[in-house]
Amino acid sequence: MEPLYRKYPIFIENSLTGKKEIFLPVSDGRVGMYVCGPTVYSDVHLGNARTFTSYDFMFRYFKHLGYQVRYVRNITDAGHLENDADEGEDKIAKKARIEQLEPMEIVQRYTVDFHEVMEKINALPPSIEPTATGHIVEQIQMIKTIIENGWAYQSNGSVYFDVENYNTKGGDYGVLSGRKLEDLQSGSRALDGQEEKKNAADFALWKKASPEHIMRWPSPWSEGFPGWHLECSAMSTKYLGEQFDIHGGGMDLKFPHHECEIAQNVASSGHKGAKYWLHTNMLTLNGKRMSKSTGNAILPKELFTGQNPLLSKGFNPSTVRFFMMQAHYSSILDFSDDALMAAEKGHDKLLGAIETLSKLQPSESSTYNVQDWVDRCYIALSDNFNSPILISHLFEAVKFINSCTDLSIGLSKGDLQLLTEKMNCFAFDVLGLRKEESSDSHKEALNKAMDLVIELRAKARDNKDWDTADIIRKQLTEAGIQLKDGADGTSYTL
Ligand code: AMP
Ligand code: ZN
Known about the structure:
Layout: H1 4-7, E1 11-14, E2 19-22, E3 30-35, H2 46-64, E4 68-73, H3 91-99, H4 103-120, H5 136-148, E5 152-155, E6 158-161, H6 163-168, H7 181-187, E7 203-208, E8 224-226, H8 228-240, E9 243-250, H9 254-269, E10 273-280, E11 283-285, E12 288-289, H10 300-305, H11 317-325, E13 333-335, H12 337-359, H13 370-382, H14 387-402, H15 413-430, H16 440-462, H17 466-478, E14 482-486, E15 489-493
Parallel strand pairs: 3-4, 3-9, 9-10, 11-13
Antiparallel strand pairs: 1-2, 5-6, 6-7, 7-8, 11-12, 14-15
Helix pairs in contact: 3-4, 5-8, 8-9, 11-12, 12-14, 12-15, 13-14, 13-15, 16-17
Bound molecules: adenosine monophosphate (AMP) and zinc ion (ZN).
């Protein structure tokens, strides 16, 4: 059978060219996708979760279309300095110092937290989740190659990428972000620590560790640590090759992180790395970017439990995911309690209609063109992963399902099957929504409540109060709970 990706080819907005382009993978039928993962020095916030959920949605769609996908999402556990540039303390080491823990205890704690959040939000695990500290050897090798190729220099035990030399010899630093080298050169000369660099725009590939810097490794140049941008170049090359398909991250990573990654890739292999560079837009709170450093971060955990003053209640993770999927990944998404309440309504209506659909019977013929609807859903998804348009099509189907007044839907057997299959697949497999299973604590509470109801009914029967006993049984049946009287007493089933 022809794979779905031939029928519904994907078009992607490529940040590298600024154009929407047809997606043609480097190797037919396979997708290599690299996404910059979290720096694990604090709990992931809802903005981080939005970015990773967007890429999970793409991962799911590629797989659904029949591609074989290798999805690499790294963990940054060293080298990311405080100011996102070449100076300051390592973010992880700083947290370790404050909490009087080993840096790897910090890494472990927040990696576990990240995985818990991803599991709750129903994001599939990536195929490979490499860490920066696990790839020091590969990073040192890449620096050696870049030096050999003449695009980096040593200075006082550190190694810097020579941006001006790179651009003079045919490199294109600025290709992604549109920044001009002249502007970058003039900008930051006054900053501390710039004296080691030939030019202000140069960036560190390796930094010599100061005596108090605890995360350090031996290298040909000094005992030190790799520059933040290098890990992604080294790990994407190692696991996906010098030329691969997709590279993703949030918009804030476009510059300097991804710009530097591209320069490193070209300087070491002659290729830019990925063909398609994607950037997710920001989750905002009152119009301001949610961020760890500005203190306006809401944690996914707080959203699930409702434990945040901005929230009127808790929301289940599938509702939170639906809230994110309602916006296109390249649009800003503003967080509010009202928006979550509205998403909850929509989410429950959609899942309710899918439940109704499973109970409907086919008719002789169809009054709704299901194949045309299926095509429109795929076209939306393949048009740069347009989840909001897909959701609007899903709601067109919801309207149709809910308009069926009796058990017969007005669809032939084949169309009913197709609609059922695709509604389920779009909602659960591709958008990644999840029917919430009742938690153990809910089950326990229900058992206790049912014990009480069964006891009250038994008392009513002992008192020959048949009316009360009948009302209890009838109302429970209406609520989907069946009572069963047996030799050992009364039990219930849902
Ligand atoms: P970090 O752990 O800071 O490196 O960030 C992890 C990912 O989350 C990166 O891809 C960021 O671009 C992304 N990110 C950070 N803040 C936001 C936000 N407010 N909205 C969406 N994505 C974000
Ligand atoms: Zn990265």
